[in-house]
Amino acid sequence: MHITLRQLEVFLATARAGNITLAAATIGLSQSAASSALAELESQLGRPLFDRVGRRIQLNENGHYLLPRALDLLQGANALESSFRQDIPARLHVSASLTIGNYLMPAVLARLRSEAPALRIEMTVVNSVSVLQQLIECRTDFGLIEAPFSAPQLVFEPWQEDELVVFARADHRLAGQPGDLAALAACDWVMREAGSGSRRLLETLLQPAIGAFRIALELGSGEAVREAVRCGHGIACASRLTVARELASGEFSVLPTPGISLKRQLQLVWHADRQLGAAAAALRSCCLALTTPR
User: Fold this and answer.
1) 101, 203, 219, 280: least surrounded by Cβ within 10 Å?
2) CB within 8 A of 69, min separation 6: which ones?
3) How far apart are CA 199 and CA 103, in angstroms?
4) Tens of pLDDT, residues 217-259
5) CA separation (Å) from 228 to 162, 190, 218?
6) Are 181 and 257 in contact (CB under 8 A)?
7) How far apart are CA 172 and CA 200, in angstroms?
């Protein structure tokens, strides 16, 4: 068997683009050369790697098995080249959910950069479901999420504890009152989008106790949720980290949820079939070193 790095490069580009023509353009090959390299790879492996659906091609089961292993081989080859060209820094792709990315990662990345100043870090901040999807598709090296998920392709490691709070404007009718789940159920809610860690935990822990939420607004970021609450659109639930300033200033008030704990475990995640590279391992160590005691 004589699989080449070029064949694996074509395979990876095609998996990402979903189209051979686009894949060929991204790696500087003609369409015929890319198609030939992909056909040779499938021939050498003795099985197809893609399902053809119209003009698009999608990874099949064989392709999904090969994807993380091909990426490891290509990254290893790139690292070998880089070791002979010291002016080119290593690169780490990180995906973090919104609360982690906005409030916890700056300190983690500061520590990492102090330990590895030449490391080039690219971080994407999206919701937890998107982080997992990027990991499964091998579009990122390391993930950090806020909600309890499971996927057989991924390794999940508990990191640190976070607490969600239900909050409202300080002049809300429930502010300063004893906790009342029925009263919370009767309120208008400002919610994060489906797929966010806070939305998932809220639906898992609080919804069974209060029933269906009266959703007034459904928004795609914590900032938008806070502004909506500030403008009087309803109550919301978010990490205490994200509303710490408003709570300290007295602008917002926590609404108690008697008998219900809204604590959650933040998690570190990576692909089970990919080796944790030196840069990703260093990031993991920095995360564990900066775990906030609760």
Assistant:
1) 203
2) 273, 274
3) 18
4) 999 888 999 999 999 999 999 999 999 999 999 999 999 999 9
5) 23, 7, 10
6) yes
7) 25
Q: Which residue has the tokens 């090969």?
A: 66
How far apart are alpha carbons 162 and 74 in whole angstroms? 37
24-46 tens-digit pLDDT: 898 888 888 988 999 989 988 98
Per DSSP, helices labelled H in the chain are 5-17, 20-26, 31-45, 61-83, 98-99, 105-115, 128-136, 181-185, 197-205, 207-210, 222-230, 244-249, 278-289
Q: Domains along the chain?
A: 5-83 (1.10.10.10), 91-160+265-289 (3.40.190.10), 161-263 (3.40.190.10)
**Global confidence as pTM:** 0.72
Of all residues in the chain, the percent with pLDDT exceeding 90 is 52
3-state secondary structure of 41: helix
